[in-house]
Amino acid sequence: MNARRRSADRTETIMQTALDLALEVGYAKLSMEAIAGRAGVGKDTIYRRWPSKGLLFLDSLLSLNQRALDYPDTGDVLADLRQQIHAAVDLLATPPWGPLYRALVGEAQHNPAVAAGLNDRFIQPQADKTVARLRAAQTKGQVSPDFDLELAMAVLSGPLYFQLLITQEPLTHEYVNRILDALFAGLDPRPRP
Amino acid sequence: MNARRRSADRTETIMQTALDLALEVGYAKLSMEAIAGRAGVGKDTIYRRWPSKGLLFLDSLLSLNQRALDYPDTGDVLADLRQQIHAAVDLLATPPWGPLYRALVGEAQHNPAVAAGLNDRFIQPQADKTVARLRAAQTKGQVSPDFDLELAMAVLSGPLYFQLLITQEPLTHEYVNRILDALFAGLDPRPRP
């Protein structure tokens, strides 16, 4: 086993330990000391790679996202959005990871490095995929040519973050479906054809 | 000056002191000790009314909302929404209070009492007003009869919370206007009349 391989294994072990411990004690009580101790590495080893608990936990949580939350393209844009958003919600907005993702977003409110990491490593790539999927649909006439694609991520995921972070009510598939229907319908009274 | 009046004055003083100090040191470094000291009251006096810093700061921030963020009803629902949301954004999403409101929402991610207080004292009343204004517009045919009014608050304010809490980009009037236009347009390609 070469050095690069050993380092990758160690990274994996540290992130898995962070996830295990977070499930046991919650985000607030998670500590770099406890992670180092259980992972069998020195604290310095962790701090060399992750300057803070928030950044380590961000990486750990994103490492769960194996399928990279890609959008399918079956030709039915509403069905594809529904499927992708259900997967995102199942991963990050429901137990066991939902409460920990909420805590991480909470940390991003006073820790600019965590906020930047969250955007660079997760939000922006997801936003790019969302725009690409909607642009393909717009080209085929399945999305209104008037819809401002730049706002796609805010409009589609904003109501879900509102449910996750503000009302803190359960984020079910049914809720996602209702939001999507409302966003497709729009507020304007539709002229009768 | 009777006892009730004195108590109201003291409440006012404590909340004003919490706001002043928060502007000076930020939310993270705000302490009940420092507030008590500067307000010239005992810590017990504060804790009797507010069991935590988060709840005191929530009340203090909401006390700024003198105009209660009511919706005008000029007959033009889009203009009315725009005006009310601009006022909300000016109060809670831009400096000086924006960063402190962000911190408070951050606190609500690990403090259930703050989350409940935020919903009971601010979000739910605003949601009720939003639904009432949109229901009046729906009755007049200015909002699509298909639009699910129960989702109004999530759909209208979700994209703004996304900007405030996730991307943390400036929340300008222009951004609000673009979001409103996108929500009125909807994603569905509109049939030509």
Strand percent estimate of chain A: under 5%
Unreliable runs of chain A = none
Measured on Cα atoms, how large is the radius of gyration of chain A? Answer: 19 Å
The largest interface is: A-B, 53 and 53 residues
Structural class of chain A: mainly alpha
Note the total helix count of chain A: 9
User: Quick one: CATH superfamily of the largest domain in chain A?
Assistant: Tetracycline Repressor, domain 2
- The end-to-end distance of chain A, rounded to whole angstroms, is 68 Å
Q: Give the CATH class of the largest domain in chain A.
A: Mainly Alpha
What is the count of β-strands of chain A? 0
Mean residue pLDDT of chain A: 93
What would you note in describing this structure?
Two copies of one chain form a homodimer. Chain A is mainly α. Chain A has two domains: 3-52, Arc Repressor Mutant, subunit A, CATH 1.10.10.60; 77-185, Tetracycline Repressor, domain 2 (Orthogonal Bundle). Helix content of chain A is 68%, strand content 0%. The first copy, chain A, is built from nine helices and no strands. The first copy, chain A, has helices at residues 3-25, 32-39, 43-49, 53-62, 77-92, 98-108, 112-139, 152-167, 173-185. The N and C termini of chain A lie far apart (68 Å). In chain A, 37% of the residues are buried. The mean pLDDT of chain A is 93. At the A-B interface, helix 6, helix 7, helix 8 and helix 9 of A face helix 6, helix 7, helix 8 and helix 9 of B.
